[in-house]
Amino acid sequence: METTNEQQQKRIVIGLLAHVDAGKTTLAESLLVEAKAIRRQGRVDHRDSFLDTDSIERARGVTVLTKPAVFAYHDTVFTLLDTPGHTDFGAEAERSLAVLDAAVLLISASEGIQAHTRTLWQLLRSHRIPVFVFINKTDLPHPPREALLASLSDAFAASFADFTTDETDAERIAESSEALLESWLTDGTLPEADIALAIEDRALFPVVFGAALRNEGTARLLALLCRFARPVPIEPLFGARVIKVSFEGADRLTWLKITGGCLKVKDTLSNIRAGIAKDAVWAEKVNEIRLYSGQKVTALSEAAPGCVCAVTGLTKTYAGEGLGFEMDAALPVLTPVISYAIRLPEAVNKADALQKLKRLSEEEPLLQIQSDEETGELRAALMGQLQAEVVIQRAMERYGLAISFGTGRVLYRETIENTVMGIGHFEPLRHYAHVELRLSPAPRGSGLQFRSEVSSDVLSQNWQRLILTHLAERVHRGVLTGAPVTDLLITLTYGKAHLKHTEGGDFRQATYRAVRQGLMQAQSVLLEPYYRFSLSLPAENLGRAMTDIRRMCGELDAPELSDAEAVLTGVLPVSAAGDYMRELTAYTHGLGRLALSPGDYRPCHNADEVIAAAAYDPEADLRHTPDSVFCAGGAGFTVKWNEVAAHMKAQRAEAIEKKSETPITRPRAANADLDAELRAIFERTYGPVKDTSALYERRKAPPADTPTLLMSLPPERKYILVDGYNILFAWERLQAAAKAHIATARELLIASLVNYQALRGCNLILVFDAYKVAGGVEHIEQVGGMYVVYTREAEIADVYIEKVAKLLEGQNVEVRVATSDALEQLIIMGKGALRVSARAFIAELEQVEGELTALLEKNNAGNGGRYHIWEIETKSFS
Hints:
26% strand; alpha/beta; seven-stranded mixed beta sheet; 40 strands
């Protein structure tokens, strides 16, 4: 249990980040000595540093794992996370960002900004983490301080100010925020609270120059962190974020940062929350809480907010998982781009080896150790050669497995260029599930996003959550090479279950097939990974290097020249980089240096060649089939993906014909009498229509300049059929009302449509699914001159709309159907009607409201403010 004094102190989690060999671990040692947490400063080259405790780290002189050091300095308790600087272990560093209150970014004064420095800056910016910059190794030859500050501002387009001494650059600090500028201009002061706020908002980045090996600048850095770094606000409810998972002997350690409440030994933790499938829910007790600081371990009875600790007893956690009120972290940006075959000794059982190696994947999830579906070989995704060597050594030390890696294979991805609808139907005998999805392109690098726009009146929330879970649980394969798809927004637009025959696995099948069917229709794009590179070489070799980069389809920034050296930066396809380092060493006689860091995915520069080499047949991939399964005559049968829509249309047409008690015939009346004919047909079919127009009767005559005079077509030439609940639940304004009282939301929609009909001069027919029904009979009424139809029990709105669209077909009238039901849109197009999406129709309704407001203001101005909006709504119906 921590002391009362510690609980009153400010707790800050600080991350140290840098490119390799910038002196990050040396700075950590210097900070610990300054805070008197250790007596003697260790060194990486002496293999005695406080935080590089792993045998592999000490042997190789490089940080592989993120490790904490806990110490107090003045009124602050720091948890210092020393992260790896080598690009091969960049994912380990990225995982720590989600728990940082602030970061210290190290840059070598002599080497300047490197490719990996730019990558780290982008990560810190995306996580909105305040940054303190430490320019290290100032004891070595380096450019002037002003030049280094200018390079930071140019590279990162941000405000950097020198805080090395108390004589700070006041003008730069004042320019970083309006509050600071106002104080500076008013009384010449720069309040610390405003400086802290500017740093927290990432408007200002303090810079300290120093030499960690000589303990220069570290005291100043610690003082600045105490004064200006602020902890993330603490929540009263329990929350924690999983940083990583590791193994210590037989113990599985889950590393957490407590973000709210507190955690006690024997507390039960669970991942239960909305969107988690029942079979994925776990609840486990915390057996131990350990506080690590280097090699020192302290057992705690409870962990307070802000504490970074490791717990035992949890067997199903994973890096980035949120517990309590915390949600899962975003998908990592730094991911492996090359997959390697794992070679096993002949006598080793492949299944046993896979089970053991998957424990390594728990520590480093991006290894993605798995058995290839097609070849059966074991594969792992790796960031580079150094990580491969570490994995080989770990496998031997822990499991006695003498593994090696084969030739690498670039990990391509796929996305789409256009929006498509995907349908998945799964209906073998005594099973049923139907799913419709909209697949839309998303911004590059955003990954996969899932959401639902389906009302719970159409499909229960339990089924919707299950569909979203199925979308997220699988790696969806593209149709060009079978590579994973990315950068997609997948929206559930419709779903249907059977009261008796639907099981959870049915929706899994329907969901997978809907995604695949949509991809088969889309314009797919093959993406390949790119490196960011920084190439330093003699100036005399610059021309050769630029030619090589262009030959490899890379992109170059403007070269930087200084004395006899040139520096090139840019991006380069991973597939083209190959063994260029060896070629560079040869033609520069060992003077060239190439630094690569993971970049982003871009359209493949040789897509046709890659697709041809893959020879992938998406229809032959039965594990990812796009076809649907229907049932007829007591047996299920498969319908090809490109025939699903037509088959459903035929099924629906057949169902309509069977349900229709009276044959539907087209009216032969002239267009001028079409409205009366339609009313007569309604009355023959459904009985007398109850006219409620009196509810909308105006209290006085409207002004003569009504907007209906601007109508381009006479009323009898325009019909709009509206799927009521589809529009209601797509309109954000009505969603809150619907949650409180569905009838209120329905009346609000009716009133809005009455206004629309008045101003647009159309005949509007509003259809609601199976509501306000007595005895299973349809009900139709007229409100403000508009037909409002409530279908019979179990008859959906789109079936009714199809009947009316067919009735109006060929009558020389304009018929529009407002719905976002993809299948319905296809069917009504076959009836000669025009389709308009729910979003577009809602925009028209809001435009009408704007016109009404303008007219109301005009009327009130000319008539002493005596008119009300409802009086204008009815002026076309008197």
